[in-house]
Amino acid sequence: MSTFSCHLSPHSTHTYTQISSAGPPRPSLPFSPPIINTGIRIRHQIYDTPARGCTLIGSKDNILTRTDLGICATDPTKHIDGTEIRAYWIYRKLKKAIYGGVYLAYELRIKTPTTQSNSSPGYELTGSYVAIKKIEWSKVRSLSGRLIEDPLKEIACTQFLTEEGGGNVLRSIISLSDEKYLYSILEYCNGGELFDHVEASGRFTEPRARWWFRQILSGLKVLQDRGVCHRDMSLENMMVNNSSALIIDMGMCLRIPYQDSAGNTVSGVSGTATNRLLLRAGRGCGKPNYMSPEILAEQSFDGFSIDLWACGVMLFIMVTGVPPFDRAQPQDPRFSMAAVNSQLRQMLVGWNMAASEECMDLMQRMLRARPEERLTLAQVLQHNWMNGEVDQPEHGNVT
Predict the structure, then answer these.
(1) What would the CATH number be for the domain defined by 10-30+190-387?
(2) At 286, is the pLDDT very low, low, confident or very high (cuts 50, 70, 90)?
(3) How far apart are CA 318 and CA 240, in angstroms?
């Protein structure tokens, strides 16, 4: 038996009933504006890593570097503030995105005298990769206010979550901007989306699903500890890096309002503050088969509860290979059976899909149509199924 323990903050135990009784729904709190530094794309010589002889690769375009900090007079490898100079060779496009695209880039550093051949200037590979979201400023301006997904808020939220360590959340490294593009430079994950791993396997065994579900909940705990609701939790928004998984795509995130014992709204999460319900936010939040019934019904909602609902759907897909329903609405018979009438077990038996009693019990308790009947994060983490054996996958490779 593999015991899973996780330090829980007090507000992860707050039930929907406690939250809703605290008062009427409130609007979300704003994130601090994102920190965006000035950058420029240049052409320069690139050398291999010192470990590989530091041979010249060639003169390359699309080298992105920061320009708003000067170079240290006594050490040309550092900025004047003492930080090491880094640049990024944008190598190839990984996928399209609404506002531009996501690219694989090599991290570079200034070629130092100890590794320099014939004192030639240039950059050398560090051996590390990053992912870069290249965002067109023209699309940001033209789509402002028309889409729920907001690239500036995504950067602000990712930086906010990175302030105290990312955990199982994708880490922000730096954001740079030139006249045409905004570049969000992020940790690179070498294993693709978790959804792709489920699809390739058909479905996971419960020990394998348990391994990944612990990763998902560890990431969700980071969000809840910082008072953030993701609103788009899905297997497609979990990136695999070696044998861990990181939550990505923060463009729909909301900061949850809290109130102190006197009933005043507070901006920070504390042990005595109570999180509040959020005002309804429309249907376009997330992917249809992960959306909770209260989002689809355009009702006010508990940000933590809707993320946990989506996690219940994720667990169901990992264990069975298929989503529990198309939409969490009464006209979907599977939703009515599994979530309204609490017959998830009977539905799985009818599908001839084997799952342990503990696993079916956990999924049922997470997928209740009424949010006041759902488990909190603390209750999910303490469920017996979480303490079973795990099947840790092998480390992935950079592709």
Answers:
(1) 1.10.510.10
(2) confident
(3) 14
